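Subject: Protein record for review, amino acid sequence with backbone structure tokens
How to read it: Take the token row as a discrete description of the fold.
Enclosed: The protein record, placed directly beneath this head.
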Amino acid sequence: MHHRLSRRAAAFAFAALASLAAWLPVRPAAAQPVTPIKFVLDWKLQGIHAWYYLAEDKGYFAAEKLAVTIDQGDGSAAAVTKVMAGAYQAGFGDVNAIIQNAVAKPGTAPVMVYMIYNRAPFALIVKSTSPIRTLKDLEGKTLGTVAGGAASRMFPVIAGKGGVDAAKVKWTNVAPNLQEQMMLKDHVDGSAVFSVTSYMNLVAQGIDPDKDIRWFHYGDLGVELYGNGVLVSQKLVKDNPQAVAGLVRAIHKGLRDTIANPDAAIAALMKREPLLNKDLEKRRLMYTLKTVMLTPEAAAIGLGDVSDARFARSLIQVQEAFELPRVPTAAEVFDRRFLPPLAERRVAAP
């Protein structure tokens, strides 16, 4: 009898507590804290940045509990040094600059966590009427380059593969905004350029870059370098790997959606900078997707990743071109742990 009364009393007490709880205000579970991330681009706003803003508009950063602030930049290599300096936790910059800094300052160099440019956009350009039709024809000619430009620094690699005596090629420094003009006005025979920038610079000058210009893309001539991608500080990787994974997921979704609907991505970009030429920036975006992003290799290994064998060769090419004292390990430069599954990174060309 005592046990039955105890059970009844317990049941009554439980029911009373349940009834009381129904009238009490609901208190949410502890919310996951939002992580602020300062993110720097490689240059002023262009079509090649549209996916970041599409990701922002679609709430992909917010869904990952990230408050991402995106700033314009002033160079792919500068994005790397800004992250190294601690001004930013992440950015869109050049993996080859990371390679150099991994040797010079291994403790502070950032790491690439999502490769976007499957091919480095280095190229030589000459007019389509130029007598320069092969690399061998460059001997005895003068090429323009920005001071310290990566395309000119990597020239010995394609020269060696093309049977060119690099010593017979002359170089002259030109201002970044005059690279195409100097070539068009025959002040130099050709220019070493960043293709995704020069392509639209030529369009803006009334030149058809597909018909009026002959392109020598380094990626077609034996240079196995990768290009720009999402890089993060070593500190962020160590202190908050969940934030790194979330950042990569969000950017990947924005890029995937950009490939599926470029117009929506350009619309997101135009909201930030209405003075941009929408048609030109869409053309820049489509050119970049076609020439340096959606390659056969990217189709095989998925967006964001690298081929281990090719990446190892690219490390050696950078070490030789810049005369680095050692070849860094792949792990010092690229970390694929944060990539989404391969099935999610496979995309078809637009």
Notes: The radius of gyration is 26 Å. The CA atoms of residues 252 and 345 lie 8 Å apart. The beta strands are 35-40, 66-71, 90-94, 111-115, 122-127, 142-145, 170-173, 190-194, 213-217, 228-232. Confidence is low (pLDDT under 50) at residues 1-7, 9-30.
